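In keeping with the milestone schedule agreed at the kick-off meeting, the structural modelling team has produced records for the first pair of proteins. Each record is given below as a sequence line and a structure-token line. The laboratory manager (R.T.) confirmed that both were archived under the project's standard naming scheme.
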Amino acid sequence: MTAVRYAMTTAVLMAVTSAFAQVSPVGLWRNIDDKTGEAKAELRIVEDAGVISGKIVRRLSKDAKPGATCTECKDDRKEQPIDGLEIIRGAKKAEGKDVWEDGKILDPENGREYRLRLTPIEGGKRLEVRGSIGPFGRTQTWVRVN
């Protein structure tokens, strides 16, 4: 009986730990086009010393041109390949909340950077990605791949 109780307790603790580990923007995500509802790209978000960054792993849209570069970028990303391009920089976890903010997100289609807010939802299965300039902005919901 003790072995069964131990196994059940271990299984419950592993499930709880796994659930808590997923309430973070860190991981592989798929973003969805607002207009068409089709997947546009897969993006990898990582954390280093409490700071979030993210890169485009691969583009999924049908019209993605192989070897395309960020012609509209205005900083060190100008003319860099879009596949592998760092589009998220500098976000940090807000104190006492499951929200990451104070970073920037780049739209490689127009070269503009927006203030960033990342909010994991649905237990970390989805990620609300809000880009804004002043009071104006747009929110996308990304889907966790892993």
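The second protein of the pair:
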Amino acid sequence: MTDKQILSSVKDRQLVEKRRQQMIKAAISLFKEKGFHRTTTREIAKQSGFSIGTLYEYIRTKEDILFLVCDSIYEQVKRRLEAVIELQVPTNDTLSHVVRAYFELMDDMQDEVVVMYQEVKSLQKESRDYVLQKEREMVDMFKAMLYKYLPYKISETDAELVANNIFVKGQMWGFRRWMLQKQFTLETYIDRQLHYLRKALAVKVP
């Protein structure tokens, strides 16, 4: 399932996107406060600024909104990473620039990340599989960068592990923020993570 496969009685794609972004923002706030199951569609509609009837013109179920939240997170990550990659001249430290941009995005999206990890289990199997596949694609982006930017050949097993480590450590800033943000600023957190990443990969900063 993709966001285009979530049925809407409204045919104006721009309006559908606008209304769904309002729902996503409202849902994140409510899911964070009350959880997915305790939040009602009426509350989401009110927080979004329109009626419950209007809400059901753009989605079918409350689960559709949770799916849109998860899908939105991965689409934003993909766009940010692709934009950074396009701007970078390939060097030994290109990977660090991309990882920094990813960590900064995870800082911007802390609430979304927390909601996703708390509530993705509430999706039905088809939707959950789609979201997990999007996560797989994000990890594969990091793997591709390891193959492209490292000054030596890395094994597939090592690339898989390092890519997953990068992915999780970025998100950890959000779901472990209750502890990490008492001890680190975002800048120091990124710097230390990059220090250990470069050390593990034996990459020197030019």
